[in-house]
Design brief:
Elements: H1 7-10, H2 21-35, H3 45-66, H4 68-78, H5 93-111, H6 115-141, H7 145-173
Helix pairs in contact: 2-3, 3-4, 4-7, 5-6, 5-7, 6-7
């Protein structure tokens, strides 16, 4: 194992957006079993420190690869494409209009305490996000990182909106 390698190499996986998550889980557990700090309680300081570094690195790599949005960002980073999330917030007008419509619907449902409508919005948005992840996978398969970068930026907006819907649902349940 090489701590300087990419996350895919750490788990012995081929780089790509489409991953067998059960295989990732299995390989993560295997690595954690080898490097978990509890196994090095009686070791010297240097070995304990190295174990902690490996365990932390494996955990960070696992968290990145198991989440599709984070995995996509990481793949783009490996390919030398910066998504410029903080500095480039420009989006196509039709996408921004769609976002406004979604947000208005969420605000209305939240203000009206309409749990059923919020669940409906959640399910619709989750379906849309899943479709967009499939499109993103195809863009990665086709070697189109510029288009993939645009889709990742859009998905960042949509995932944030889904979180806001879930937050609204949780606040109604309290």
């Amino acid at each position: 194992m090489d701590i300087r390698g990419d996350h895919f190499s750490l788990f012995g996986l081929s780089p790509g957006f489409r991953l067998d998550l059960s295989e990732l889980d299995s390989r993560y557990r295997d690595i954690q079993a080898q490097v978990h700090p509890d196994r090095f309680v009686n070791a010297g300081d240097a070995e304990r420190r190295l174990s902690m570094q490996w365990a932390t690195h494996a955990n960070e790599a696992y968290q990145t690869l198991k989440k599709p949005l984070e995995r996509a960002k990481y793949l783009l980073h490996l390919a030398g494409h910066d998504i410029q999330a903080e500095s480039n917030t420009a989006m196509p007008t039709d996408f921004l209009m769609e976002q406004m419509e979604w947000r208005e619907a969420v605000m209305e449902a939240r203000a009206g305490g309409d749990h059923h409508e919020l669940e409906h919005l959640h399910n619709r948005l989750r379906g849309d996000i899943n479709d967009r992840y499939e499109e993103l996978a195809e863009l990665f398969d086709q070697g189109q990182p510029a288009l993939a970068t645009d889709r990742v930026r859009r998905l960042m907006f949509l995932e944030k909106l889904l979180y806001e819907i879930d937050d609204a649902l949780a606040s109604l349940e309290d």
